[in-house]
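Reading is simple: the C-alpha cell line describes the chain's fold. The lines below illustrate.

. . .
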Amino acid sequence: MNHKPPTPVSKTTDTTETTQNEKNDYPHRENQIDNSREELINRFALEKIRALQIEGAPDILSSIIGLYLKDTPGQLKKLYQALRADDAVEVRSVAHNLKTSCSNLGALSLSSLFKEIEHRGHTNSLRGTLQLLARAEIESLKIIEPLRAEMTNS
C-alpha cells in the first residue's frame, strides 16, 4: 500500500503578549489568535478514528469531536480551579484526561502542554503552571474551527 503523509489541519499562532493580570485570570483569549498557518491536528489520528466507523451507525468522529468540544471548557475551568487551590492531585488528574483527549484527536502540541501540566501535578511543583494553562487555553481555542470542519466533512 502507498500511504501519503497526513495533510495537516491549519493552525493559527498566538502573537499577542499576555499581561501579568491576564495570567492570573481564567481568560478566554479569542482576541489573541491570528491567521498564521501551521500543523495543528494530525490527520492520521482522525483517520484512525474514522476507521472505527460502523456502517449505519452515527458518525463516530463527529460524536467524539462533539464530546470534546462540549466537555473541554468545563475541564479547563476545573483545571484552573485546581491550580488556584494548589491541588496537585486534581491538577494531575484533570490534565491527564485533557492530554489523552487531545492526543486521541491528534492535537499533539496541545496534548504536550497538558502532559507537562500533568507532570507538574505529579511532582507537586505547580509554580508557573498557570502560565502553561494560559498557553493551553489559547491552543484549545485554535483547534475548535478545524475540529468543527472535520465534523461537517464526516
Q: What stands out?
A: The chain has six helices and no strands. The chain has one domain: 42-153.
